[in-house]
Design brief:
The longest helix is centred in the N-terminal third of the chain and has 36 residues. It contains 7 helices and 10 strands. Bound molecules: adenosine-5'-diphosphate. Adenosine-5'-diphosphate binds next to helix 4 and helix 7.
């Protein structure tokens, strides 16, 4: 119930009647809950490593005071934790920056193929030689923000390497129209059709980048929730690999800001593919 009051008594017809206004606050409450959950999660993600850092500092000051080998080992752990916290803060800042600019449509002409190749070069020191491959027939020009597209491909390729099994092999495909599909895969997220309708262009003009791995895949129940902030299939494993739980949320926000879409497909035990749809550069002329 939002508001209730007796109707003005002047009119004889209104006498003894009530004005009642009802507002459905479900959506607003859900949004508020998401916000408070996010703050609670972010605080927890930062508090845990900070408490652990304090523990290590105290150990180095006391028990390990005269043990250089133990000190060296603890400092290594402390460095890894500090680096992860820095990544988390950087990801939190990216996420809020993207949210702030969500209403504006990016307007640069960006070649997806060239951008995918650039990301491969950037990730070479982390992924190693021969792990990342780009598959494209030629340039695919989209209407985008180049730095944000780099971040999308980087986050997806980084995950594909992290969760791609012991000897990862990752394909970054670029094209327009219908992307390749994994036989027998479960699917979640936006469809090519929905994105084409939203953009008002034929399906054949919608551009995509598809990052596919041959890793462990994604269980059915996790698939629809993967792009939520801090959602992880195995939080311990993600942390060990230096993850922040925000990579896919950032990808989703960037793609939404481009009025595109994200689709995830996976076969458990065989691998996953993350497809991001983007508007063609021709849309600018419309
Ligand atoms: P994180 O920092 O934990 O990697 P992300 O938002 O990038 O955070 O991903 C969320 C979760 O989705 C990961 O923790 C992981 O469980 C799952 N995930 C992401 N990419 C893949 C992939 N290529 N294969 C399997 N699981 C994945």
């Amino acid at each position: 119930l939002f508001y209730a009051a007796p109707l003005p008594g002047g009119e004889p017809a209104n006498r003894g009647r009530l004005l009642v206004m009802v507002r459905d606050r479900t959506a607003q409450k859900k949004l508020e809950k998401m916000r408070t959950d996010f703050i609670a999660n972010a605080s927890h993600e930062l508090r845990t490593p900070l408490a652990s850092l304090l523990g290590f500092i105290e150990t180095i000051e006391n028990h390990a005071k005269d043990d250089p080998a133990a000190q060296k080992r603890f400092l290594g752990i402390m460095r890894a934790q500090t680096e992860r916290m820095l990544r988390l803060v950087r990801d939190l800042i990216s996420l809020s920056a993207i949210e702030l600019s969500e209403a504006e449509m990016p307007a640069e002409r960006v070649d997806l193929t060239e951008t995918a190749r650039a990301v491969c070069d950037m990730l070479l020191p982390i992924a190693g030689e021969g792990v990342l491959h780009v598959e494209a027939d030629g340039p695919v020009t989209i209407l985008a923000d180049r730095d944000e597209v780099i971040q999308v491909i980087q986050n997806l390729a980084d995950n594909a390497v992290k969760y791609g099994g012991e000897f990862p092999s990752v394909t970054i495909g670029v094209g327009t129209g219908a992307p390749p599909t994994m036989p027998g895969a479960l699917r979640s997220g936006d469809t090519l059709h929905a994105v084409a309708v939203r953009l008002g262009v034929p399906e054949a003009q919608v551009a995509w980048v598809r990052v596919a791995d041959q890793g462990e895949g994604i269980p059915r129940t996790d698939l629809p929730r993967l792009t939520e902030r801090f959602y992880r299939i195995d939080a311990e494993k993600s942390r060990k690999k230096g993850g922040t739980g925000l990579g896919l949320a950032i990808v989703k926000h960037i793609v939404q800001r481009h009025r595109g879409g994200i689709q995830i497909e996976s076969v458990e035990g065989q691998g996953s593919a993350f497809i991001c749809f983007f508007p063609p550069a021709a849309l600018a002329q419309k």
